[in-house]
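Ticket #4471: structure output looks truncated?

Reporter: J.K.
Steps to reproduce: submitted the chain below (344 residues) through the standard prediction queue, then opened the result file.
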Amino acid sequence: MRHFFFSLVFSVILFSGWLLVGADLFSEEGLLSSEGSQSAGRVSGEEVSLPIGEYPVFRERRDVTAEFRPVRREGPGRFAVPTAHSAVLLDVATGMSLYEQDADERRAIASITKLFTAMIVVERVDNLEEAVIIDEEIVYSEGTRVGCPRTGYCIGERLHVGERISVRNLLRAALMNSCNDAALALAKHVGGTKEGFTAIMNERAKGLGLENSHFCTPSGLELDDPVAESGCYSSARDIAKVAAYALRYDEIWEIMRTSKTDISSVDGKYVHEIFNTNELLGQYPNLVGTKTGFTPRAGYSLLAVAGDPERGKHRIVAVVLDDYYRWQSIQDMFSWGFSAYEWL
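Returned output as attached by the reporter:
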């Protein structure tokens, strides 16, 4: 009995020592996977995942890699996006910055805001077929609206006061056609008021560690008061972080890859035609999705996510803020990123 006791104690000491030594070889955090789990690592080629918010006890060892990591290749030279005021290229799996240019500068981001709004809505609404009631404030929103692809240019059926339309259909209008009325309708449905929802946005931003973001509207529409508007901002890096996190919600990206669709009220009385503002649909290989943004203060801005051209397995987020040549700049960033790095 005594021999068994000492053997047991000795085994515990050995095991504890292994833990203490191993702890120094692990990285601080796991990596977020697109399936909504925290990747604890790969063991014998199999990925071990934990539910969102639960972190692995151990840290990463060299023989237990959490994900493939981007490694700079020899050959491709330096890169720049001279037409952008701010830009970043981010590896989704590791959060590693592959390229950045004033990535933490606080700037207006216009309708790119709607991606963050959509993410919060999907997180908080269990049933996307749930009906939203359209009120007068929503109908008379400024800027791009359902039925009005540009300010003052209305060619389709607009939303109507009292209309009941699903959360999913409003997400389509907000993400594809960047409709401000749809974003406001979603915000009021979740937060009660526009102000209530923006409070949720800013609390969520803190939770995600967005250090250079403060949101004032769910649509990104600028405020009439210049002083107040100066307090509404985000950064290229923060936006890229949001996109990387939002990849766990497939509903969002499926919508963003849809070129056009009809959405209707719950009773089928009203039908609204929705088009996508994404100019790269069908033009760029392994494109996951994009979100555009424009206001006079923000300039022409763009967020896009793409997988590597060969297999699409390794994904990167590209963001340019205030870049008139945004569509070409984004393609140049993807091209350089996938040629300048390999994932090992």
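Triage note (M.O.): checked the attachment and the full token line is present. The chain has two domains: 27-67, 86-343.
Status: closed, working as intended.
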